[in-house]
Design a protein that fits this description.
heterodimer; A: about 240 residues; mainly alpha; MetI-like fold; 11 helices; about 0% strand; B: about 230 residues; alpha/beta; three-stranded antiparallel β-sheet; about 30% helix; globular
Chain lengths: ~240, ~230
């Protein structure tokens, strides 16, 4: 009950500040729903585009999986450098600042940068997600490494394990957290890869933007359905894998 | 000044240690020779684990002289001692998700980091690790993940690791605290039996009978100092 009250109070205050508690606003929103409904008769799917849809889904998947796999590799090497338990203090501080500052840049901004650097298409999206995923996973990994039981750490240190050798032993110990965070990033990447195309970085989003420009709503809906299907498929697969680890 | 004594494995003289304002060790003296097994008893919070951690080089005392295998842990020479100490904490220090043999092989990760990271150990290391597991009666469970083993079996994996490590110093923190009487006796016999391999054993124990029966000397830690119980 306390939790509900604790969240209810700021929600009410902020809704007031944002101007959401305004009957006029909701009346206007109701009228706009009627406007939107005029689109409904225009909607439908274009059966001739399913081939292109498959290409788009394939591209989105490639971008996402490359982002995760390369992100895991970078994060595996970066996380021990960002942990004071495993690296000298100055290196750990520098590593942490590097990982944290890179993480504040949204994936879409990385995509814009890579579109400029390597040109439009899937490769820009893949590189953007690789950087984004690695900085996120580095944080997940070093936090998981630091949550390890201190006695295990003492025992391994007493045997002379240091640096990466120690980190790799600990990675085995925290493999459940690792798998869970990797699956989380895969779900995230598929969702993000679907919109990276808006800035020219390939995937389903690229096709959606093209057809929006020429007001072909049936084509847009076809690709939106494909995007929803792929996100749902990855979420379900990820959930199934998570329950098995 | 303490003269280096070749046959002494552990030498502590006047060792003092505090956690914040709380002084737990107040002049601990301890001498252990090659092939001896000693037990340390005492109330919870008396500082027994602290002594083990100081010997392992994991904690630095405020005062006192320490030599482990002839070397002060604060000196550069201790780098060569690292990897020769087996510290078995209460929670055993086993890597979950790894099999029994993985945990045993871990003892050589220090000297063979590349083999450890790649997982390609070669026949020689694998057969030695299997020998160590056989010595503790766990050969058939070599490929079983440690979290699927019983408490006694896990304790044996930790001992097998110390055997494979060829550690001349084995530090065990309450090795039998969560085991039934029969298993506890077996584990203590295994542990103290490592004297035959030239190991020196320091164990924190709670069971006085077991300690007196199997260890060469039993100390009690009281008021921050060690005295011989038997």
């Amino acid at each position: 009950m306390r939790i509900i009250v604790a969240f209810l109070i700021p929600t009410a205050i902020l809704a007031y500040i944002l101007g959401l508690i305004d009957p006029g606003l909701w009346a206007k929103a109701g009228l706009n729903i009627l406007n939107i409904s005029r689109f409904i008769p225009l909607l439908g799917v274009r059966n001739d585009l399913w081939g292109d849809t498959l290409t788009a889904v394939y591209e989105t998947l490639i971008i996402s999986v490359f982002g995760v796999s390369s992100g895991v590799l970078i994060a595996y090497l970066l996380a021990p450098l960002a942990s004071p338990l495993l690296a000298p203090r100055t290196i750990a501080i520098a590593g942490r600042i590097l990982a944290n500052s890179a993480r504040t840049v949204p994936a879409i901004l990385w995509a814009i940068l890579f579109v400029i650097l390597v040109g439009p298409g899937a490769k820009a999206g893949a590189l953007a997600l690789a950087i984004y995923t690695s900085t996120y996973l580095a944080k997940f990994f070093y936090e998981a490494l630091e949550s390890v039981d201190r006695e295990l750490l003492d025992s391994l240190k007493a045997m002379g394990l240091r640096g990466y050798t120690l980190a790799f032993a600990l990675y085995t110990h925290i493999r459940r957290q690792i798998i869970s965070s990797v699956l989380f990033m895969l779900e995230y990447n598929v969702r993000t890869a679907s919109i990276l195309g808006f800035v020219g970085a390939g995937g389903v989003g690229y096709y959606i933007l093209q057809y929006l420009d020429i007001l072909d709503y049936q084509a847009v809906l076809t690709f939106v359905i494909a995007a929803i299907a792929i996100v749902a498929a990855i979420d379900t697969t990820s959930y199934t894998l998570r329950t098995r680890i | 000044m303490l003269a280096p004594t070749q046959n002494l494995v552990v030498e502590l003289r006047g060792v003092a240690f505090s956690y914040g304002d709380k002084r737990v060790l107040n002049g601990v003296d301890l001498e252990i020779s090659y092939g001896e097994a000693i037990a340390i008893m005492g109330r919870s919070g008396a500082g027994k684990t602290t002594i083990l951690k100081i010997i392992a080089g994991l904690l630095k005392p405020e005062k006192g002289v320490i030599r482990i295998l002839g070397c002060d842990p604060s000196n550069k020479c201790f780098d060569s001692v690292r990897g020769r100490i087996a510290y078995i904490p209460q929670t055993l220090g086993l890597v979950e998700g790894g099999s029994a043999i993985y945990n045993v092989l871990l003892a050589r990760a220090y000297e063979k980091p590349l083999r450890f990271i790649t997982g390609i150990w070669g026949k020689e290391y694998i057969s030695k690790a299997l020998e160590a597991l056989e010595a503790v009666g766990l050969l058939e469970k070599a490929r079983v993940r440690v979290e699927r083993l019983s408490g006694g079996e896990r304790q044996r994996v930790a001992i097998a690791r110390a055997i494979f490590q060829g550690a001349p110093v084995i530090l065990a923190d309450e090795p039998v605290s969560n085991l039934d009487l029969e298993t506890a006796r077996d584990v203590v016999e295994l542990l103290t039996g490592l004297r035959k391999r030239g190991a020196t054993i320091v164990a924190v124990m709670h069971d006085r009978d077991l300690a007196q029966r199997h260890f060469d000397r039993v100390y009690i830690l009281e008021g921050g100092v060690l005295r011989v119980l038997s």
